Amino acid sequence: QVQLVESGGGLVQSxxxxxxxxxxxxxxxxxxxxxxxxxxxGKQRDLVAKITSTGSTNYADSVKGRxxxxxxxxxxxxxxxxxxxxxxDTAVYYCYAKKTSxxxxxxxxxxxxxxxxxx
Length: 119
Hints:
Layout: E1 4-7, E2 10-13, E3 18-24, E4 33-39, E5 46-52, E6 57-59, E7 67-72, E8 77-82, E9 91-98, E10 107-109, E11 113-118
Parallel strand pairs: 2-11
Antiparallel strand pairs: 1-3, 3-8, 4-5, 4-9, 5-6, 7-8, 9-10, 9-11
């Protein structure tokens, strides 16, 4: 039904920037929430940033002021601009989408893209 495809990951030096993109196979206007999670080896998958259908955004404390999440409804794309990258940002980043804020089981995930920040 729904496919989310991430792109833009790679290797970057500390202090550098990357822009991740998530392309959805459906109109993203149908999703109440879209955003990004990340998971480092041996750790749980944690929320990085999210954006609602009304444009409201939230960020993990560790990325506030450095990362920006945005949405382009015309292109069915959600992006994550990552600036001032740190080695602790190294993780697999996953795009996600959720149709409602109250139901269970209406989540969709991308395959993940690796971000590696060298010191």
